[in-house]
Amino acid sequence: MRYSRSFSLACLFCLGLRAFCQGPQVNSVTGAPNYVLYDFFFFRVMWLQDQADKIKAQGKDDSQIRHTIQQQAGLTSQQESTLNAIASDWRTNNASILSQIQTIAATGARGPTSPQLQALHSQRQQLVLDHLSQLQTAYGPGSFYMLDLFVRRTTSMSGPGVTPAGK
Amino acid sequence: MKVRILRATLLAAVLVMFAPGAAHAQESDDCENFYCTAYAMYSSGSITGYVQYYDDSEDWYLGVDAYVWDQLGNETWCNSDEEYDTATAYCSYPPGSNGVWDLVGYPWYSLEGDEVGDGAVYYDVGVMNMPSGEISVVGPLASVGDVFYATLQPTSFNFDAYQAAEYIGSTTDGCYNTYHRTSQPVSGSAAPPFNLSNNQYQDTVASPPSYVAAYEDATNQYQSSCGWSAYQQMSYNSGPPYVSRYLTQTISYGNQVTTCRDACTTIY
Known about the structure:
The complex is a heterodimer.
Chain A: H1 2-22, H2 34-57, H3 63-66, H4 68-73, H5 77-105, H6 115-154, E1 156-158
Helix pairs in contact in A: 2-5, 2-6, 5-6
Chain B: H1 2-18, H2 30-33, E1 35-43, E2 46-54, E3 60-69, E4 75-82, E5 86-92, E6 99-110, E7 116-118, E8 121-127, E9 132-135, E10 147-153, E11 161-170, E12 176-185, E13 194-195, E14 200-204, E15 224-236, E16 239-253, E17 258-267
Antiparallel strand pairs in B: 1-2, 2-5, 3-4, 3-6, 4-5, 6-7, 6-8, 9-10, 10-14, 11-12, 11-15, 13-14, 15-16, 16-17
């Protein structure tokens, strides 16, 4: 058991050092507003959890996928739990807003001419910013700075004025 | 692509039928005008990923088509489940071909019922199938000047590959006291000490281990462990994703058990 623990720690150590010392330089995504960037990131966090749940339901080892963000971003277990809780709460509330948008859009309303849809989209943006603020508070400036670097480094995205990462 | 075009054509036809005055359809690159993202991973022989669309101007989202392209330009169509602004794509990866693949997603949508456009968004996902290797056994405890050999397969890739070896001294309480590493890209050249002809990497302990007897367990026996770890890493265009294969030999001092383990393969 001790062997296994030591070995696992050695592997984590390798990964951490590799990330800091050996990985090639990578560009970061710039030019995207935070409500889009973190909408994508919160979605990624929850999507990975969903994939881990599916693998676990098949009786397979889900640990690598479940802890993907933790390992790649170098988070502690507590930081990982905090991130998952915040992302989960974001998803619940975001799903509610999206459901309302779909209901209204199904009547033929479109965003540019529908004050209701515009209000819901504003709520959706604010929801992300609120949860981003929760994340900043929970992590503190130093840890959040590192997480934010990770988010910008690992988000592949296109959009108006966006400089994509890693391409 | 045919499916995407077919779906877009059908959509345009439906819009023309039910939206008088909306008689034209035109293509535009939505991923330049709106936000798109993609993410993918390799697991259990398949690439799974999603393409997501963030509509900043409250338009109506319709669908995403996704493909996986390999380095030679071969494409694999991905089945996908679509929701309001997200599609999850599922691709079966052809076994036996290592590489970094692109997940390419085409979100497409209608704007005010009279325009159909699409755009592309990419995500690289690394796949490494069945690499193998071994690490030569060194003594129960390494000392300065000991030579370490690692052999890793495969070593031939069409993109940047890194070979690295490192020496880790660790105590069983998880404290790491000694570290030594060297690495360099080996793509297309035989930069020493890696020898491309026999796929062998040689490294030498350059600093003394300082971890001996650093841990006392419940039975009052001093134990420590040290190990060699060699890993192979590849990346595409010096950017993510990185595909790594770790081979680790852990040597426990105290009970004199020597094991060689092959684990910690990471693909992301």
